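Archive entry. Fields below.
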Amino acid sequence: MKVVIVGSGVVGLATAYALANRGAEVVVVGDRAPGSGASSNNAGWVVPSLAGPVPAPGAVLKTLRSMLRPDGPVFVRPSLAPSFVRFMWSMLRACNTSTYARSWAATAALGAGTMDALDRWVADGMAFEMHTGGDLEAFLSREEFEAALGGLDRSRRAGFDPQVLSGDEARAMMPQLNDAVVGAVYFPQDRRVRPASVIAALVTRLQAMGVTLIEGAVTGGGRTADGRPRVTGVFGEMSADAVVVAAGAWSPQIARLFGSRLPVQPARGFSMDYEPGQFAGDVMLMLAEAHCVITPLDGATRLTGMMGFGGLDERVVPRRMQVIRQAPSRYLRSWDPGASALPPSAGLRPMTPDGNAVIGRLAPHQDIYVASGHAMLGLTLAPRTGEELATMILDGGTPELLRPFSPARFGA
Ligand SMILES: Cc1cc2nc3c(=O)[nH]c(=O)nc-3n(C[C@H](O)[C@H](O)[C@H](O)COP(=O)(O)OP(=O)(O)OC[C@H]3O[C@@H](n4cnc5c(N)ncnc54)[C@H](O)[C@@H]3O)c2cc1C
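PREDICTED_STRUCTURE:
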């Protein structure tokens, strides 16, 4: 079977790997170098434990408060475009307990096999930077801390083993934390990777497996005279037995080429690296109220944050970067925001209104698939998304794990 994948981010590449591993002939078409944007500039957290979707009970109020503050972690550039208004309205309606619980359970189930999948990648010869050590979510506000504890039962039931620490216990684990930290939650099983090294390893492996990687934008889509799906672009025309739309935040544009509508909107985030690393230790740190994360990597510290709704815009905003740079000072004993930071970068998280990824067949087609909308967890969920989608494409039917991610829930 021949499959064309549109999009060479981590989701497209992981899907290509899973398909090629099962003997499919695979072509990946990306409009720029593999992994450009979010797939390389993300925080590198491999965190099945953080399965909570963005639309959560109470999120609306928090977002509104954040929008009113110049240093708020969420910003929205309002638009009257019908797709944007529809998206925001649907997201608002998804901020309820039952939708949150459903999305959490589906994402946790898909993510549960992530570490095994990554270990299979390594066993298959992929070499990339990966660390164990878990992550610590540190709180300055007692109210936020207690609210977070309320959700830990479901984490325990899912086997993520969250450990609740007092401020002093957190400081014993991570001496850099200052006295303002009132408590923390530690997830011991989570890992971190250097995202660009994962992309490089995937590309090398795909090339060795005979997968064709093409650099050029897909600009057209449709069917050949004999009914096969086809895509067109500067590379000419390519037909296949199946097409996978894995173009991240740009997926709606590709879906439209096949007459389908996908409610995916971009949410911009920023990251910057300090080299040499400012932050010693083997545990990733989430600054809970600031919505920023710190990732210790070999010879570097990556600082990441912000969620900005406002179109397909990948520009870095210096004012927002300044907020991210300063955030660790509120949590850490010593943090020099100016120290040898490399130029910042940005990426677009592909978001859906209910916060869950959208993976499956794109109606009304039987041979056009989508794998997008992974929001804050695209790196984490890519390996299992690829494996499950490969099963769907090659074996037919819908794997049980993918049912909650069906595009049909959006009428797509
Ligand atoms: C700041 C930040 C921090 C994050 N941190 C984490 C984290 O720690 N852990 C985690 O799991 N996730 C994290 N994420 C989320 C994760 O990065 C994304 O969910 C993931 O990268 C999405 O991957 P993707 O392959 O779907 O999309 P993308 O990486 O956006 O790839 C899609 C590709 O399709 C290409 N494309 C677009 N249009 C066309 C076209 N017409 N033809 C061909 N190609 C096209 C794009 O150029 C792009 O290269 C973070 C995101 C951001 C922004």
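CURATOR_NOTE: The first helix runs from residue 10 to 21.
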